[in-house]
Amino acid sequence: MIEYIIWGIAPNGEYEIPLYTKCVNMVQAVKVKGILEKDHGCIKCRVQVMNLSDAPDFAATITV
Which of 56, 40, 12, 1 is nearest to 20 (CA)? Predict the structure, then answer.
């Protein structure tokens, strides 16, 4: 499973936060990023791509 997370600074914000996480591909993510910047005034936006299918199994590494 691949997730496209758009990070940026919201209008009147000070810190980078996740702005949107429901994109299904990079084309859609870039389009939403542009909308956030142009129409909503977000700044320093970027797209993070996470491949969740390659995520390590942290439960297997926990020792009690």
Answer: 40
